[in-house]
Design a protein that fits this description.
Layout (H helix, E strand, L loop, with lengths): L1 E5 L3 H12 L4 E6 L3 E7 L5 E8 L5 E3 L13 E6 H4 L7 H4 E8 L5 E8 L5 E7 L17 E6 H9 L7 E6 L3 E6 L13 E5 L5 E3 L4 E6 H14 L2 E6 L6 E6 L3 E7 L4 H4 L24 H8 L15 H19 L4 H4 L2 H13 L14 H9 L30
Antiparallel strand pairs: 1-5, 1-7, 2-3, 2-6, 3-4, 4-18, 7-8, 8-9, 10-14, 10-16, 11-12, 11-15, 12-13, 16-17, 17-18
Helix pairs in contact: 1-5, 4-5, 8-10
Length: 413
């Protein structure tokens, strides 16, 4: 196999290999008569990424007929370590290289990458040792699903910008006229986690062909990888799937190449886990003279409070006011439960009495003593004390302090 990649296409193959490196640690090469495929799998085998470069992608694509036999199904296969391939495709190769040539012989244990640079006529040859020969069969075609969606990469990028970078999974609720995207958390709900929901209408997609309404949950990392690659070359992203629990395909097409990722999914409803959860927070006390709302915890604390104990930062000896405070709080409880009799149970004078006792009588226990004065401030006052002394003394005005230097010997009046 001998194929030559022109300089203008080296950026495409470089970005494609970098995208594959985000998925798996091994890269499978399959050379056929009219195309070259690069495939990888992640460790858990839940994501499969494949780049297919057609014959028109190369300036020269040649495969020897004696290497294509019936035993290997008319395909040349080999496997490489991703760490050995990735360093060759770093940087802006389209500006540096004149062409890239890939050579492979079935009888050899090496794959050869020849890079011809534009400047100084440098030709670099990289020999990469092959791994054990292995054939990878996926068994899933990119267009096997009954639901098809096609959207621009900018639209999907705007949707992802609504989610946090810490989100690992996304849930898509697909209906006939719209799609609802939510972030997904496994297990119990955490109030500190932000729940996001984005609604997209069918008119925002180039193709919106939904024959089966479903809910699909999958990982966000493959979607971020696809969007990053698609925005570089201004490609549209297609989604093909059947339903939750079956594979979902993210597809990008170009006249000379196509890239797709097959991602495993699940249906959250069948797993017994809800995609959305609501948490109830305790209501806060609002200090409003017209509407007094008190939580149940505060009411119980006020009723069980021992007002006879000494307070650390102040003493309250007026027992009548304390008992009055408790009785007013009990009236507030009946006021919130029986709104029809609110004028009889609690009046404006009682409410004002509550706030007057709270503010004027220092019932609040959270009293923090003042901090002592800083010694540095005392030192500054001592050093600059002369600056604050008066510079003019009124009793000395009108008196002769020193004689005049002129000959008239006039006095200062």
């Amino acid at each position: 196999m001998n194929c030559i990649v022109p300089a203008q296409n080296t950026k495409v193959i470089s970005k494609a290999i970098n995208a594959l490196a985000k998925v798996g640690d091994e890269i499978y090469l399959e050379a056929k008569r009219d195309e070259l495929k690069l495939t990888t799998l992640n460790m858990s085998k839940t994501v499969c990424a494949q780049c297919c470069f057609f014959q028109s992608f190369f300036s020269s694509y040649d495969i020897k007929e004696n290497q294509l036999t019936e035993e290997n199904n008319e395909t040349i296969t080999c496997k490489l370590f991703m760490k050995s391939v990735l360093p060759l495709f770093k940087g802006n190769l389209e500006k540096k290289l004149e062409f890239l040539k890939i050579e492979f012989d079935m009888s050899s244990d090496f794959m050869i990458f020849k890079m011809k640079y534009k400047f100084d006529q440098i030709l670099m040859i990289h020999k990469l040792r092959l791994m054990d020969s292995e054939t990878l069969s996926i068994g899933i075609t990119p267009n096997s699903g009954i639901n098809n969606l096609l959207a621009s990469s900018s639209l999907l990028n705007q949707v992802l910008s609504m989610f946090n970078l810490s989100d690992n999974e996304i849930t898509l609720e697909i209906m006939n006229s719209r799609i609802i995207a939510r972030n997904y958390y496994t297990g119990t709900s955490n109030p500190k986690q932000m729940r996001c929901e984005v609604k997209l209408s069918a008119g925002e997609f180039f193709i919106f062909d939904v024959k089966n309404e479903t809910i699909v949950n999958f990982a966000l990392k493959p979607l971020r990888t696809v969007i990053s690659f698609a925005e570089t070359f201004n490609l549209q992203i297609g989604l093909n799937f059947d339903g939750g629990g079956k594979p979902l395909t993210l597809l990008m097409k170009n006249p000379t190449f196509q890239i797709y990722l097959i991602v495993s999914t699940l249906n959250p409803n069948k797993e017994g886990q809800s995609t959305m959860s609501s948490t109830s927070l305790p209501t806060t006390t609002q200090r409003n003279k017209k509407n007094l709302n008190i939580t149940i915890e505060d009411q119980q604390a006020l009723e069980n409070e021992n007002w006879d104990e000494d307070i650390q930062f102040g003493k309250i000896n007026e027992n009548s006011k304390k008992n009055n405070f408790v009785s007013i709080m009990k009236k507030a409880n009946s006021y919130s439960s029986n709104k029809e009799n609110q004028s009889e149970d609690l009046n404006e004078s009682d409410i004002s009495e509550v706030y007057r006792m709270d503010v004027d009588d220092n019932i609040d226990l959270d009293v923090i003593p003042k901090s002592p004065e800083s010694p540095r401030r005392k030192k500054i006052k001592l050093v600059f004390s002369r600056c604050y002394e008066p510079t003019i003394c009124v009793p000395n005005l009108g008196k002769e302090i020193n004689g005049n230097s002129d000959s008239n010997n006039s006095k200062i009046e």
